[in-house]
Amino acid sequence: MLQLCIIGAGYVGLVSGACLAKLGHHVTCLDRDSARIEGLKRGIMPIYEPGLAELVAEMTKAGRLRFGIEKDDAAPDAVFLAVGTPPEEHSGAADLRFLLAAAEEIAAHAPPGLTVVTKSTVPVGTGAKLAGMFPSLRFASNPEFLREGVAIEDFLKPERIVIGTADSHAQGLLRRIYAPLTERGVPLLATGMETAELIKYASNAFLATKVAFINQIADICEAMGADVEEVARGMGLDSRIGSRFLRAGPGYGGSCFPKDTLALLHTAEAADSPPTIIRAAVEANTRRRTQMVKKITTACGGSVAGKTLAILGLAFKPKTDDMRESPAMTIIGQLLDKGAIIRAYDPQAMEQAKALLPGEVTLTASAEAAMQGADAAVIITEWEEFAALDMTQVKTWLRTPLLIDLRNLYSPAEMAAAGITYISVGRPYAK
């Protein structure tokens, strides 16, 4: 097996490193954050991802995964770049400072011909730019397609592997790295670097557009008395469309869709190829949060001023503690501006919430504590825990039995039978 080095021990780097070690390679994860590295050496994960702590512990014990701040003298067969490429504040373009700094440091110390693989999501043309800046190195693109909450399964049982490079040696090396997967039948697509870079952006932009589309269909359903759940089911049975990402709700969030759609917009416009469909999806998603605030306000009688709202769910999706671009952040902020009193709970994101939410938000230790005496409960994240609430208890906890479910976790008819005033997304109210 191969000796691999990963620069960046964040979400992508840590999951990729642990999974590459699981494939049998020897992996060193490097990061300039000394506190993070020391924590990882002690088994403390900087993120919540199901199964990750156990996999890291297993691979560390096996001697195939280790962590450090600086590169040692051992020469790896390949170096993966998994550093952050956050959006620039004003333009939305991907900020490549950390990536370029890492590549420059590698070039200063690496032997000629070392293969450097970009795992970070980067604008189209970045690989060619790196190759031009550091001609002594071989460059390849290997975009990740990890979904938070199921990232380990996505890596070890992927639907496809994409590698982009014009260098035959780099391509052959990546084929060797992923041989344990391709030998089991996982498709591997070898392309040029620009194509591989665009596959990542195009995939996320398409899925983001799909989310924005079904949310607009939900609005039409509410206006016409149709049920978006049944509409989505009918659409999803068409194999050309598929059922995934056809769940109406408060809009997409997280570290990928918002950042990647903005970066693709910037790249396309710079190339004089305006992506009007993607821009419409971005704008629709931005409006979506305000629409949800209006829905909540209307359900509360036209005003939330002075009313206590129990917010259930802060992470942008279940099975993660990631609050980046979470719909909850915008919704809570707008509700506070309207005078609401907010109590909030999430099964995993409470530590992040302490740093990210305004001080006037009360964070509770449970869903029950958030709902006790509240005027309404609002489900924003579809955690399993929130899909299994005992409505008999909920009625005793809330001051008024009003449940605003932005994830359609319950049946309107069942809620009506339980005596709950139930507001969902894109579905008729039960009488």
Kindly list the characteristics that best describe this protein:
six-stranded parallel beta sheet, 43% helix, Rossmann fold, single chain, alpha/beta, 17 helices, 431 residues
Commentary on this structure:
This protein is α/β, with parallel strands linked by helices and 431 residues long. The protein folds into two domains: 189 residues, NAD(P)-binding Rossmann-like Domain (Rossmann fold); 218 residues, Rossmann fold, CATH 3.40.50.720. 43% of the residues lie in helices and 13% in strands. It contains 17 helices and 14 strands. The protein has a six-stranded parallel β-sheet with strand order 3-2-1-4-5-6, with helices on both faces. Strands 11-10-9-12-13-14 form a six-stranded parallel β-sheet. β12, α16 and β13 form a beta-alpha-beta unit. α9 crosses α11 and α9 runs parallel beside α12. The longest helix has 32 residues. The protein is globular. The mean pLDDT is 95.
